[in-house]
Amino acid sequence: MFIEILAAGAEVAEVKSQFGFWEALNEGGVIAYATFIILLIMSFGSFYILFTKLFEQQKIYKQGRAVRSTFWRSNSLKEGAAKLDKNSAYRQIVDDGIQAQEQHSKLTDPVEAHDWLHGSLARSENAINAKLAGGLPFLATVGATAPFIGLFGTVVGIYRALIKIGSSGSASIDVVAGPVGEALIMTALGLAVAVPAVLAYNWLQNRNKQLAQQLGTFSNDVLGYMASDGSVKPVVTAAPAAAKKPAPAKPAATTAGGVKTPPKK
Fold it and tell me: Is the residue at 11 inside a domain?
């Protein structure tokens, strides 16, 4: 009885090893391995871009909070820029605006200062947005092509199954299980790579739009500040002052007759 149980367990283990993941890839041969490696590279690249872009975006969100709390409390743009991080996206806009203002007086062709400053700030803003959008086309490409790469492996697996059926003259499950299993695995891998890439692309794209709106608002505020010589700038709410505790009331004085008189104000 015990020997029969061990024999049955050995048979199950042998079946599992025969139709495992790596056995299915071995069944597919070079094409299956090549498809798997391509999908693995796509998946690694997608997650690498996801985490690096999240780090960049979070950094700019943090810089935006610093701008709202410290920058507009400064007396000049140069003083405010000195309070920002050296590699800050907001400081890049300010530095480009200051440089454009200094270059305007050197132009031989008369150009209105507003147009010159607006164009310079817009170029700076577009450069930052282009840097934020870097890598997103790769995510879009992975999301669009990974299912078809997996489908290619599926087609090859089914083709191998048909060849085995034709060569053996039998369509039993043990003949077609290997190639069909390899085909289904390729389809699953393609979807597993494509779905996270599409979700990451849409999420990062939405966050980039929010950052672009914030950068555009800041660029417009800088332009208004420079065009008005510092007269126009966003209203910065002052920090709430600590509430003063009321002074304790003086006790009423008592006369010799026991009558209490109110304290003098």
Answer: yes
**In the block, residue with structure tokens 């003098």:** 264
Rounded Cα–Cα distance for residues 27 and 244 (Å): 80
pTM, two decimals, is 0.73
* Boundaries of domain holding 225: 2-233
Helix (H) or strand (E) holding 254: strand 253-254
CB 234 within 8 A of CB 221: yes
CA distance 70 to 67: 6
256, part of any domain: no
CB 165 within 8 Å of CB 179: no
For residue 204, how many C-alpha atoms fall within 13 Å in the half-sphere facing its CB?
29
Per-residue pLDDT tens over the stretch 56-67: 999 999 988 888
Q: Residue 21: is its pLDDT beyond 90?
A: no
How many structural domains are present in the chain? 1
Residue 224 covered by a domain: yes
199, two tokens = 């979700």
Whether 46 is covered by a domain: the verdict is yes
Judged on CB neighbours under 10 Å (0-12, 13-18, 19+), 13 is exposed
Please list the residues that pair with 253 across neighbouring strands: 261
- At 168-216, the pLDDT tens digits run 666 566 656 666 666 778 888 899 999 999 999 999 999 999 999 999 9
What single-letter amino acid sits at 208? N
